[in-house]
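Model: You mentioned two targets. I'll fold them one after the other.
Researcher: Yes, keep them separate.
Model: Target one:
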Amino acid sequence: MDDSTDSLPRSVAGQSPAEYADAEGIRSSLLKQILITPAHYQFALQHPKETTPAMSLGTALHAALLEPAAFEAAFAVVPKVDRRTRDGKDQWLAFQTANAGKTLIPAADIEMIERLRAAVGRHARARALLERPGLAELSLYWTDADSGLRLKARPDRLLHEPRHILLEVKSTTRADVIHFQRRIVEFEYHVSLAMYRDGIRAVFGETAPAVFMVVEAETFEICLYEPDATMLREGERRFRQALITLARCLENDHWPGYQPDGVIEPISLPAWARNRTTDGTPTEY
């Protein structure tokens, strides 16, 4: 798809995060908020999150994994210099001049990046996926035919040759299947996946298979997961539900929260809490 015009659908390679953020369109992280309540969507729209050190490290790890050449061009490791001394000040000034415009990362983070690269080297299939031709952080723009909403997405990496494969990299405390299943539900990863695949269909005319590359935060163990048909259907259903809800809220300019009618709801203990003995241990069945 030609990325040189503003026609839709289109793809744009090489956009900076700031350019993507400023471009027109609803991104998945914002859209998913309306699945909580429309009021949450409005709050997220009006209060964008500020970048934290943890987020900056995550961005650096993604770049080192998915775009090694771009990582070297976009990031610089902060040198260990004593800026209280004259020599230290001179070294710091020279470093800043040589790396103007780059994102600075602490020297301690380089160890984590090297551990991540080593982990990929040990996982033959993960290494093979990352070595396939593709584009990281390719910006996709399209209009949803049903709702008329203008959407945008930025998949972690879109592999090609002979066909497109959507590769999403996720970091988590535990990478095993049971824990990652819970994380998928908690963070609605399947909804983001549905939106990305919708964008790929709109731009490239393909229904792309998807793979999660899950990296465990401390051990850097890597697991690969392919979403099954049930997950893909549920993600699509939730994605469509979010679009319908957003279109309706925009049409009526009405953004209700949890209890729009101000009712007092009854509340009880969950089943797992009721099924306990008097000493707090679970009952036997």
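Model: Target two:
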Amino acid sequence: MNDSLRQDSAVILAVLKNSNQAESARAASFSKNSSILEDKNFLLEALKVNGLFLKYLDENYKNKLNFVLAAVKNNGMAIEYASDNYKEDKKVVIAAVKSFGRALQFASEELQNDREVVIASVKWPGRSLEYASIDLQNDKEIVTIAVKQDSRALQYASKKLQKDKDVIALLKKHD
């Protein structure tokens, strides 16, 4: 990597480290003026620093497992920008929801109905129960995990479990 590219990459990584989405867009536009986007090692590093940078990468990278995993492990919400086949990939979705449970909203319907995926999701934040299938919103074990994590998750449980004495007892423990 020449000095100019090294300098570009250092600037972009610095911006990405503590950036919101608007600043990520700025870093992406800066990088488009540079051949830095051709450096796969740099791109992987950038995704590890700020997974949402995936949004600004070429479709080719959104179709590569190692790039998508780097992004979702940093920020689960990056799955929104991954190629659709990864929203059906259990390994990728679990990595995303472990990073941030609300990434479940971008998972395939099938995975929103997968117990293992949903349990990983509701551990943080519990309100990700909102994106679970109706069947799993009626699963007492899953609702219990979600409500223990965040009492506000109860609003996404089935009507039956919203009235369940054991689940309600959990709320009283949190008060």
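Researcher: Noted. Anything on target two?
Model: The radius of gyration is 19 Å.
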